């Protein structure tokens, strides 16, 4: 596989039973591009939006781990060693609460909360992935981690089967949230389905399945037409167009003094070349711009 100059964002609608790594590996082949990564892991059970980055866009990865929205389904009255329906699911025998009790408990989980990462997560403890220890039947103590749940809506209630829409910070475990809600209700709960519908500024309506991309490639469609420009991932950042002389100076490690800055305060901004293509992210510091992430060389 030869390296190509592709650089951009590919929102993929991940199918069930695929790992995020599987998606990246398949996308490498479809794009003919070795340098491919993703922002925000999805478990094999989950479906929906996986933000795939191609080429130098992978340098933006850490900036794209923002707020996310999920649609989750859960079943009350059960517990599971994996906190989902794919584990050892057992009935608790507890009476199921009416919908009004579920509504009443949800506000407890809004705002800043702490979660204990599940043993089936990819978190490293002592240099080992938790899910690898779980496969060996090993369970270890995990420290709680702070997360933020901004919105939590009960969108459907049919007996013990419920549907939730959750908007939360990166690093939030929905299966843990569901298990904690079940504990608060006194009946237990397991996650039965999970779909990510938004990640930062990108949403599921922009995503395409790998199956569809394979069909398009077989039909002769150029892979570069699938990619969104890098600015689509961070559309709210201000942008500044550079002259050719300013661009050269920036890549020589110089600051750019005396320019009117596009930001109202110190922060990141896009730098565009004369054609309007994003070539870098810069940090605006008082009256100067300094190169932060180079997307060109």
Give a verbal description of the structure.
Helix content is 18%, strand content 34%. It has 297 residues and is an alpha+beta fold. It folds into three domains: 8-66 and 202-232, Pseudouridine synthase, CATH 3.30.2350; 68-199, 2-Layer Sandwich (Pseudouridine synthase), CATH 3.30.2350.10; 237-294, PUA domain (Archaeosine Trna-guanine Transglycosylase, Chain: A, domain 4, Roll). Strands 1, 2, 3, 4, 7, 10, 11, 12 and 13 form a nine-stranded mixed β-sheet that branches. Strand 10 (145-158) and strand 11 (161-168) form a beta hairpin. Helix 1 runs parallel beside helix 5 (210-218). It is elongated. The mean pLDDT is 89.
Give short descriptive properties of this protein.
297 residues, alpha+beta, Pseudouridine synthase, Archaeosine Trna-guanine Transglycosylase, Chain: A, domain 4, 3 domains, 4-stranded mixed sheet, 6 helices, 17 strands
For the termini, the CA-CA separation is 20 Å
Q: Structural class, from secondary structure content?
A: alpha+beta
Mean pLDDT: 89
Helix percentage: 10-25%
Secondary structure: number of strands: 17
CATH-scheme architecture of the largest domain: 2-Layer Sandwich
Counted up, domains total 3
Radius of gyration: 22 Å
Going by CATH, what is the homologous superfamily of the largest domain?
Pseudouridine synthase
Q: What is the fold named in CATH at topology level of the largest domain? A: Pseudouridine synthase
């Amino acid at each position: 596989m030869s390296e190509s100059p592709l650089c951009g964002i590919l929102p993929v609608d991940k199918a069930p039973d695929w790992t995020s790594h599987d998606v990246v590996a398949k996308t490498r082949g479809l794009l003919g591009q070795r340098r491919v990564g993703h922002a925000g892991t999805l478990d094999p059970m989950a479906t929906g939006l996986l933000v795939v980055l191609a080429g130098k866009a992978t340098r933006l990865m850490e900036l794209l781990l923002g707020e996310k929205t999920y649609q989750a389904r859960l079943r009350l009255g059960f517990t599971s060693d994996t906190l989902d329906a794919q584990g050892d699911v057992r009935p608790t025998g507890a009476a199921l609460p009416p919908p009004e009790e579920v509504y009443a408990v949800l506000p407890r989980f809004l705002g800043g909360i702490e979660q204990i990462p599940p043993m089936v997560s990819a978190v490293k403890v002592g240099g080992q992935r938790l899910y690898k220890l779980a496969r060996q039947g090993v369970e270890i103590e995990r420290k709680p981690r702070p997360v933020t749940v901004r919105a939590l809506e009960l969108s459907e209630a049919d007996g013990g089967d419920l549907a939730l829409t959750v908007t939360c910070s990166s690093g939030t475990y929905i299966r843990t949230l569901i298990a904690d809600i079940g504990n608060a209700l006194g009946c237990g709960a397991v996650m039965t389905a999970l779909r990510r519908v938004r990640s930062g500024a990108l949403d599921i309506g922009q995503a395409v399945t790998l199956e569809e991309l394979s069909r398009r490639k077989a039909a002769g469609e150029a892979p570069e037409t699938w990619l969104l420009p890098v600015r689509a991932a961070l559309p709210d950042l201000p942008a500044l167009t550079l002259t050719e002389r300013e661009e050269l100076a920036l890549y020589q490690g110089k600051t750019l003094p005396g320019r009117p800055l596009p930001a109202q305060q110190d922060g990141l901004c896009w730098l565009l070349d004369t054609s309007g293509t994003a070539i870098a992210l810069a940090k605006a510091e008082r009256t100067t711009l300094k190169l932060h992430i180079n997307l060109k060389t």
